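Issue 218. Parser rejects a valid record. Input:
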Amino acid sequence: GDLDLVAAASVRTPPGAPSPDGPSGDDDDPRPGFGRYLLRRRAARVAAHPAQPGLSLAERTLLHDGLAAQSAYVAVPDVLTRAAVARHDAASPSDRLPRSIREARASPQWPLWLAALKKEYGGLLEKGVFDEVDRAAVRDGVKVVPTRVLFNIKSDGTYKVRIVVRGDLTKEGEHYIATKSSMVSLDTVRTIVALAAGSDMPLYTVDFTQAFLNADLGEPHVYCGLPELPPEMCGGEFGTGGRAKVAHVHKAWYGLANSPRAWQQHLQRWLLERLGAKLFVHDRDAFEWEWQGHRLIGGIHVDDVLFAVSSLEIRDEFMRRLKAEFEVTGGEAEAAEFCGLEIVRDWDNHTITLKQEAFARRLMDKYGVWDSRPESTPYRLRRPKLEPSLTPPDEAMTFDYAMCLGDLAWYSRTNPGLSFVVHELSRSLARPGPDHVEAAHHVLRYILGHLGAGLTYHGDQAVLGRPYDHRNKLIAAFDADFPHAGAKATSGFMVFLNGAAIAWKTRRQTTVSLNSTEAEVKAMVPGIEL
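Output the parser choked on:
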């Protein structure tokens, strides 16, 4: 949330006391900043001022300890965490989420929370996630992992309760052997979309309901604590819960460290053995299925699947087999979004566009760019090359700068033109200066003028047939930035499919090149490796 309000929830400047920065405060702060993230500095300075008299001795001690020991986050004191708790406690009961079943019972919304709790707990029992056994039956030396009840209200107003395992308290070798799992790569997702556009294949998405709970855990001696059930649920179909009972876990319960791996293996076995699909060697989360002369290609991102089909017959058969084994949603209307990527289909022009316009608009709000003048290029022209700042770094500015670059890197998933500039700005991540902040703002102003930009893949022969037939054919381009100053050059490559990029990379070369020809040859290496 806004950290100035968070800090003000527990500490504030006493009446009549001067501002920690003098009369001008942040309004005349000459240091560059990032929109509303200037508020972070004000919050930290307010927190550093003597606490209000209303704080208890324990709270005042915590305040000073937090200010003395910096948080793991640069320039954000640990006291802000305590301030967030204070703000939560100060909120009216109707404005905050309960942190336990006891708090939920005390709220006016208890009937809604109770219905959500029954749905969650009943679903765990129905799927055979655990058996309720006596705590005394657990053999000595076996740790009972606690669970936690989480409450949330979704954007559509639905009350949601989730019971999760404290996986952070599990130990390797005792509760699990391996945890490695994977998700479909963005390169694969873009390839599926590009092939769908090039062959006029419809795109669909499927979401698995409580996906992890379909998979067997594979560890026979995992026991978890059970929540104290309210009187309305004790006995009968929900069991008794509480401290006298524990859960003997059989399924991949949410929160366990190896649950993602168990689910991935379960789904892959189903695809291979039951469906008869093929998994790709380069990306084990991409698959292809052929049925009665029809073709389906897809990619798996945890519990979401994006797939393209050559006909509606194979889509219907695929959905029939899925629903016979899992509880799923989707698969009927054409895909409009997948993992934050917006999918825009234009059947008249035979194109599919991947973009992140909603995320771009959030960036404009986050960094206060709406009133700025849009830029035509992402990189500043006719400016000296950026170098790390020689002055000691400002920790608050470094934090905001790193956060901004993270946002820009995420946005570049559908905007490869930002790859080089984000790479260049990241080289000074530890020592940014005013010029680096201005360069980052320049990129944001460029995005402001291109909010709807993205990757448009084509299927029209008029586009893919000129100047030669390149439908469903890979085209690679390589380049290098030779500095002519004895420094290492920067490699860049991009792979195109059906009119737009599906993969790209910008990286510093590992050795110094003697001439531009050598740098260009080295630039081909990462593309060939791909």
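Fixed in the parser; the record now loads. Residues 490 and 508 are 4 Å apart (CA to CA).
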